[in-house]
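FORM 7B: Structural annotation worksheet

SECTION A. Query
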Amino acid sequence: MSILKQTERSTLFLIIVAIVLSLFIFYSFLKYQFNNFIDQQVNENHKIVQKTFQSNLKNDKEKLAFELDTMMSSLGLSKAVSEHNRTQLESIIRPYYTNLKKSYPDIKILTFRSSDGKTIYRAHKPEFYGDKVNGQRKLIKDTEKFKKSFSGFEVGKFGMTYRVTYPILYKDIYVGNVEVGLSPAFFLNNLKGIFNMYIGVSIHQSLLEIMLDHKRIPVDDSYVLINSDQVLQSYFLDDKVKSSKFLFSHNKLNIKNDIPLLNQDGQIAGYLVVGMDREKLVQKDNVFIYRLFGLIFIMMLGAGFVLYYGFKNILEFYTEQIKVDQLTGLKNRTALNELLVLNKKHVLILSDIKDFSVLNELYGVQIGNEVLKHIAAAFSDFGIKYGFKVFRIASDEYILYKEEEFFDADEYVDILESLHKSINCLEISIDGVFDTIKVDINSGIVFDHIASLEKAQMALKKTKRTTSPYMAYSKNVDTKEESETILQIKSSIRKGLEDQRIIPFFQPITDSKGNISKYEALIRIIEFKDGIKRIISPDSFIPVSKQNGFYTEISKRMIETSLLFFINKAEKISINLSPGDLFNAEIMDTLIENIKKFDTPSKIVIEITEQDNVENFERFVHGINILRRLGVLIAIDDFGSGYANFAHILVIKPDYLKIDGTLVSKIITNSDTKILVKSIVSFAKELKIKTIAEYVENEEIFELLKAYGVDEFQGYYFGKPIDLINQQDL
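SECTION B. Predicted structure
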């Protein structure tokens, strides 16, 4: 009996040992598989970081180049550099640099140098100037040699910066260059905002002697420069940096140091260091495994089934963790990219919070994060209601994604209205903030599954230039071609101002007998490309000039040139102004100064050429009265189509009414137009106001208008605009 019991005990012991041994072997195998899987996911994330960094670097380089180009278009800047006029540079650059620092807080350097390498002005340290630039810096030497922009990462005595240089030309002569230096923290913070990783920079071994010493140098709170000959893992365990956010437990850190930071020649200046803390994943791994093995031990008969499906669920769990935004719990950009590569037909809505950076500055980042959580919850509720998948892909950018084979655009207008209403109605209450916080959003929607995210970003960007809170992508909102066109026009304007090629053309205005009584000054830009003359009309460049600060200077030059040319001529000269020009002190001062040069101011006709409603009509009339007291004549342009209604005419009492050209062009074929033109002429005669008809293209129109009693005529029938100053036809 005792032998049997002993045998039973031995058998039970062997069974237990076998079970324990089997579980141990299986546990070891499972842990090995988990670690491999986590490593694979980490490696994939490294690849995504590399692609994102390279894409961001390219975009930021283009933005910096655009900022420098915009800066270079500042009136008088090239001349100030040429003359080494630091005072003028300070007045031009200081406001621009202040605004630039708001957009790029990590800009460390903005330096202007002369053609011989001397520093003229430093916006970041304006009290320093006059020193020689380091002759060994190839970035600067190549800018001087090739007269073109260069960019790349550079290692100096105190750390690394990303630098972009830009040559400065004055009257087509190289007079110096401007250099902007950006801290790597800018690029690293952008990456940290997307990925839950730890990111730093290491210096290439060959460049270490440039540093003050060979120790790692903390640059700021955002990143650390690490010598490439150090063991990176030991750095993060160093006692000197235990308070650093980069600190990890031993064997819990995955680090890669293989993303190159290139200088202007494509040579490696350093590497992007990417580290991922696996501790949380490992902890979740252990908890899950312990529970799993407890269940296996109790339910041994179902071990195979449990192990199979448990392992599958674990893999799915850890896969999903990498796709989740840690702040809001929504899916992140990694998860969105997996959907987009499937290339299924879908609708995508991209939204961002208006002026979120201002909210962050006002309340702080912690309150800003709480706002992001509330907005994420609202998007999540909206997604459930309308069947969208919801993602947070950047700091304040949210995505709504829905597979859709066929869509109704009108239905999505209602959906967008509902989305914006639901966000606008939010009243966010946060502990520590007295007032409730309200936010608004902009949205771009795309119905095309090809490059949908990029197109949604274009649509979103377009909404910020309009009053509409949302916009659908179309070729009309594709900003790539538009941006290229605007840059070309800006270049033409800038060169036109510098080379005196923005000039007036003059079109004759005749009386009823065909005798020229006056000329109207019409602005043009003359441009030469590859020896071919090109004349640019105002419709192409006036809107761009208003948006980029050229308009006032263009208007002043037109006034001075036109009036000076006609000061001793028998004919009258007609100049166009908009109501906004009457409110512009510089334009009005220039106009009044040149009017006073005329012995007979009544030879000058001021045409008011605006078709939109005048917001401040009393101020508008006051400006006209100032000109009238100087003795000039007043004409209202495009009468019959714009703001200049009959009631306003009774107040303004102009000397001329110029009948809108679109009415004149249709007068032969449209009976209603004939009635309207007759009414305008009759109304003007009753008030003793002369009428001028534009767009008179042929004899038939001329004879008909003459029969109606029109006083003066303008159009191709009498002559095209010509360059009287240089005697060149259009």
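SECTION C. Observations
The chain has 23 helices and 26 strands. The longest helix spans residues 2-72.

SECTION D. Sign-off
Analyst initials: ____
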